[in-house]
Amino acid sequence: MDNNYNELVITIPKEMVDFVADYVSNIFNDAIEMGADNIIIRSEKDISYVKDGVEALLSQLDSTMEISFDMQVKKNEDWIQKYKNSIEPIEVGSFYIYPSWYESKDEKINIKIDPALAFGSGHHATTFSCIEFIEKYVKADDKILDVGCGSGILGLACSKLGADVDLCDTDPLSVSSCKDNFILNETTYNKIWEGSANKSDKKYEVVIANIIADVLRLISKDIQSATKDGGVMILSGILDKKEELVLKSFKNYTLIDRKLKDEWVTLVYKKGN
Predict the structure, then answer these.
(1) 53 CB contacts (<8 Å, ≥6 apart)?
(2) Which range of residues forms the domain containing residue 133?
(3) What does each C-alpha distance from 101 to 19, 84, 85, 122 come to in angstroms?
(4) C-alpha torsion angle, residues 80, 15, 22, 184 (rounded to 10)
(5) With a cut of 70, which residues of the chain have pLDDT below it?
(6) Per-residue pLDDT at 257
């Protein structure tokens, strides 16, 4: 093992940390560490491409955003183990979400997710709120579509409740990660594909989309079309200052639930009667 490793610290506005971390996890296959306003990437290999990728991503979103990169060569240490030690399991209602180096809990519905390998471990406010609403609205044998499935954690929660789950993501690495996590949990899904809700050929009792407000607005008609009459749509990834975008896009449906957690809003709509 080399004596040195490369470390890249990306400092960004706190509301963008999870969005950028999701992107980084799709181009960088090792552990990432997330702080309140930064993301830390470490590797013995060259990671300058991560900096270039994030710069390109953010330049398309907001040229005025304050962002800084700090690239350093550091002395090697067991930072993977150090990172693992910083990840704690989390309980959300009846669910227990834990990394593979912890034990499961017999009295809980267990979901095993390794955050060092895939983004979406339940700790973020949007994932937490979605799982709370999944437990409230998803029933056994319901047909579910998880749009933008990422790590697959929301689809896993539905499957553990006995639902029939389809999943999709526009990123092929997320699709691969999702498949791996279903295997890790010895849980099955019905169908998974690369793409979005518009590729579905059926209707669902529950459609879940934990993305970002701008994307929810763009694919709102596809989400609505994929939902059965009488079904529900669980929408998250919505910063409170962007909530109005989503409210306008779903104004023809009945808002039946809302949760605000750490500046992030999760909305539940019902379609029809």
Answers:
(1) 23, 24, 27
(2) 120-270
(3) 26, 8, 9, 16
(4) 70
(5) 1-2, 62-63, 77-80, 83, 115-123, 273
(6) 97
Q: Last residue of some domain: 56, 84, 112?
A: 84
> Are the C-beta atoms of residues 69 and 9 closer than 8 Å to each other?
yes
77 and 9 within one domain = yes
Do residues 51 and 177 both lie within one domain?
Answer: no
Q: CA-to-CA distance for 263 and 261, rounded, in angstroms?
A: 6
Letter for the amino acid at 83? Y
pTM (predicted TM-score): 0.74
Closest CA to 253 of 230, 222, 226: 230
The reply to whether 105 falls in a domain is: no
